[in-house]
Amino acid sequence: MAGKTLQKITAKHKKGRNLVSLLKEVQDEYGYLPAQVMTEVADSLDIPVGEVYGTGTFYSFFSTQPLGKNIIRVCKSVPCYLADNQSVITEIQKQLGIKPGETTDDGEFSLQLTNCIGACDKAPAMMINDTVYSELTSAKISEILSNYR
Amino acid sequence: MPEQQVVLRNCGVIDPKDLSTYLARDGFEALHKALAKMTPQQVTEEIKTSGLRGRGGAGFPTGLKWELAGKASGNHKYVICNADEGEVGTFKDRYILERDPFSLVEAMAIAGHAIGAQKGYVYLRAEYHYLLDLLENAITQTKKKGFFTRQGTSFDIEVREGAGAYICGEETALMESIEGRRGEVRYRPPFPPSQGLWGQPTVIDNVETLMNIPPIILRGAEWFSQMGTEQSKGTKVFSVSGDVQKPGVYELVMGSSLRELVEELALAKDTKMVQVGGASGRIIPYAKIDTPLAFETVLGAGAVIVFNQSRDVIDIMCKTMEFFAEESCGKCSPCREGTQAMLEILSRFSKGQGSGKDMETMKELANAMMLTSLCGLGQAAPNSVVDTLEHFTDEYQAQIKNGV
Amino acid sequence: MNTNTIRVTLNGTEVSGHPGMTILELAQENEIDIPTLCHYPGLPPIGACRICVVEVEGSRTLVASCHTPIAPDMVIHTHSPKVLEARKVIVELLLASHPEACLVCDKGNLCELRKIAADLEIGLPRFKVKKRYYPLDDLSPYIIRDLTKCILCQRCVRACREIKKANLFAVAYRGFHSKVVVDQDQPLDKQACQSCDVCISLCPVGALAKRDGENASQETEATMSRVSGFGTEGVV
User: Fold this and answer.
1) Inter-chain contact C86–B367, Cβ cutoff 8 Å?
2) Does A115 contact B162 at a Cβ distance shorter than 8 Å?
3) pLDDT value at residue C162
4) First to last CA, chain C
5) pLDDT for the residue B1
6) CB contact under 8 A, A78 and B164
7) What is the structure's pLDDT at A16?
8) CB of B165 within 8 Å of any CB in chain C?
9) Is C171 on the interface with B (CB under 8 A)?
10) CB–CB contact C174 B330 (8 Å)
11) Domain identity same for C69 and C154
């Protein structure tokens, strides 16, 4: 465990009572919320580990299981559904060989279906990490994914 | 009524990265006026008189909210900008933040002056993380110019990010999230203006609501209240999506017709129904396309999703209820259990396995959820089901097993 | 006239209460029985079950009596048709996701959910949802947890935190899949539970039980008396 990084993260958010922001940094640093790290966070904030776990498992962008280096979140809400997000999802599944909720064997990509990300004027849309890709078609997927390989 | 540019006045005109372009268009004149020439009570009174109501969906009178927070006792009051914008089909706040973050910063500082708060938070949804730098840059430039310091006190704004939870757009769940906890809804009373963030008097306003503050201060409450209808003053920014040729953001005077928005501006054709207010909104069948858009009639936060004749009502209802079932915080039984139960019935209808009794059951379930849920999510989740049961009964009946 | 008195109309009768009183407290003082599940005297209210809702004239929704304070001139109806209809649906919903194991459940006639369902004359629920299936948590030598029966009233969470100050429980996940957990969703195996049955005494359903079936320990009896203000005979 990168103990020193965790110390830095904890120190930064301890005063502001900022468990959610802290967990976000842990998620960014480790790619998920490892059980051992959650225990250490609880210890240094002097709160029950159940509270850390309960908070960590509430939010969709946190994961207690390891995720791929790049997280693809395709929007499945109604406006993107009307704009045929299904062909985008099918294409990604074909290219990466994984279904929503899964991670590629090489650990490069995770695929998730997410709820409305606010890009409905340019539907269908998805996020890869923090970047939003919109006005998607199955034809555009190859090129977008190649940016991350 | 033609499109207006009150909230969107600077969008596409200024450089959102450069404060000087904002200053060139009366930027921060309103804050200067409020600090130099108006008492906190006068600022609040101006907002009250304008008739401005919240633009995040609930439509609570903004001036009244500020007045309650201003009068409440507390050593550390807070102004929160709700930039969680999770409602399906809503992207107006995203559009505004992308193009005019300075107006938001100015508005929050004015609110701080009005209620006596030194600290503001912008709660930015995780999905808008790419806007974080733009927003923080606007705050930093404002601070550097000294606009936050006044007569011994100062104001500051911090951006807090969400982590993927629609319920955190609900004001009490939002505060729970800022306090570092699960986004579980709090019961009310007490209301945030008397006991909010960390128990202190807190004002929580939507991005678009705040965008109206500088123009009201500069041009006056009377100017603002001359636009709109009896109970809905000013303009409204709509985000139109779905089966339209020109999806996007449109600002219209309150009371404008739905037809003008979706047909004349967004170029919808063959429309079957329109959902106004996002997933928790009301369904307007095409026969009622001339309905005016206002708090008195139908509005929500301004998400307008258009469905053409090819769309299957039950299918859309399943997707809608799936959304609520996933996003329910889980604290209260009518919502936690009710969204699941409603979804189960709708799924059976989608497979042609519905029954006439089911339709009655859905109405009673909807009623119970609307009357007893702890917050707006559970209360509004059944809205579109109730509306489609009324206006598209035949589509439900077509899915009844053996016609029973 | 005492200026601290608040006058309201309760089921057609004018009654008075004091500032800070909840509608539930006022009703209890006037011998009106409003059913509750997540509420427990001595614990801070949470407003989760929504069973205790009542009608207040002028309010768009029904309000939960356990946490809504009385206000001057409130007109309250605790058992109107509107209230009873909504209450029935909520209980039906809770029964729908509850295991159909009443006949073999050790909670028996102490089950508060069963009692409320019987009082409201509710038969089989009209709703069908997937039950929550969790393996039995019986690693602890002291407490058995069957979370398939949990109705998420959070009494155990609040009691362990407020009364025992042990903070062993937390709520995890979200929505329908919310769960009362210990640590990182691990079995409850804590020494602190040896002489404490507080959570078991408060659980309205059969989700929590003592392992050896003995009566509540003396320490718990004293705690519960103090907290609830009642004796512990037949704690319901």
Assistant:
1) yes
2) no
3) 94
4) 38
5) 59
6) no
7) 63
8) yes
9) yes
10) yes
11) no
Please choose, from the candidates B203, B204, B224, the residue with its C-alpha nearest in 3D space to the C-alpha of residue B214.
Answer: B224
Considering only alpha carbons, which residue of chain A is nearest residue B304?
A79
B329 to C89: CB separation less than 8 angstroms, yes or no: no
Which of C168, C172, C174 shows the shortest C-beta gap to A53? C172
Domain span at residue C176? 133-229
Q: Per-domain residue ranges for chain B?
A: 19-225, 235-308, 313-403
Q: Are residues C39 and C92 in the same domain?
A: yes
Asked if residue A124 has a cis previous peptide bond (ω within 30° of 0), the answer is yes
For residue B276, give the 3-state DSSP assignment.
Answer: strand
**Residue range B347-399, pLDDT digits in tens:** 999 999 999 999 999 999 999 999 999 999 999 999 999 999 999 999 999 99
* Helices within C101-213 (DSSP H only): 112-119, 155-162, 198-202
Q: Is the CB of B94 less than 8 angstroms away from the CB of A131?
A: no
- Give chain B's radius of gyration (CA, Å): 22
> Is C172 within 8 Å of A58 when comparing Cβ atoms?
yes
Return the CATH number at C70. Answer: 3.10.20.740
Q: Which fold has domain B313-403?
A: de novo design (two linked rop proteins) (1.20.1440)
The shortest C-alpha distance from A43 to chain B (Å) reads 16
Correct CATH for B19-225 of 3.30.565.10, 2.40.50.1070, 3.40.50.11540, 3.40.50.2000: 3.40.50.11540
Is C234 inside any structural domain? no
- B204 pLDDT band (50/70/90 cuts)? very high
* Chain C CB within 8 Å of residue B326 CB: yes
Measured between beta carbons, the chain C residues lying within 8 angstroms of B190 are none
Q: Residue C173 pLDDT > 70, yes or no? A: yes
Q: Which residues of B touch C128 (CB under 8 A)?
A: 341, 344
Residue C171 contacts A where some CB pair is shorter than 8 Å:
yes
Q: How far is CA C62 from CA A34, B57, B370, in A?
A: 43, 20, 9
Q: What is residue B2's predicted lDDT score, i.e. its pLDDT?
A: 65
CA angle C55, C59, C60 (to 5 degrees): 105
Residue C233: pLDDT over 60: no
C51 with C159, same domain: the answer is no
Q: Are residues C125 and C157 in the same domain?
A: no
Q: Is A30 on the interface with C (CB under 8 A)?
A: no
Q: Residues C15-49: pLDDT tens digits? A: 999 999 999 999 999 999 999 999 999 999 999 99
Residues of B in contact with C45 (CB under 8 A): 187
Looking at CATH, the fold of the domain delimited by B235-308 is given as Ubiquitin-like (UB roll) (3.10.20)
C-alpha dihedral over A8, B198, C52, C8, to 10 degrees? 180
Of the candidates C131, C163, C193, which is a domain's last residue?
C131
Residues C17 and C85 in one domain: yes
User: Burial code of C115-138, b = ≥16 C-beta within 10 A, e = fewer?
Assistant: ebbeeeebeebbbebeebeeeebe
Interface membership of A62 toward C (CB under 8 Å): no
Question: Does C236 reside within a domain?
Answer: no
Q: Which of C88, C116, C131 is the last residue of a domain?
A: C131
Q: Which domains does chain A have, with CATH numbers?
A: 3-56 (no CATH), 70-146 (3.40.30.10)
Residue C48 contacts B, CB cutoff 8 Å: yes
Handedness of CA B282, B287, B289, B291 (dihedral sign): negative
Q: Do B237 and B302 contact (CB within 8 A), yes or no? A: yes
Number of folded domains that form chain C: 2
Please check whether residue C34 lies inside any domain of the structure: yes
DSSP-derived letter for residue A101 is T
Report the gap between the CA of A73 and the closest CA in chain C (Å): 19
Rounded to the nearest angstrom, the minimum Cα separation between B187 and chain C is 6
Residues C62 and C85 both lie in one domain: yes
Q: What local confidence, expressed as pLDDT, does residue B132 receive?
A: 98
Beta bridge partners of A64: none
The ipTM (two decimal places) reads 0.95
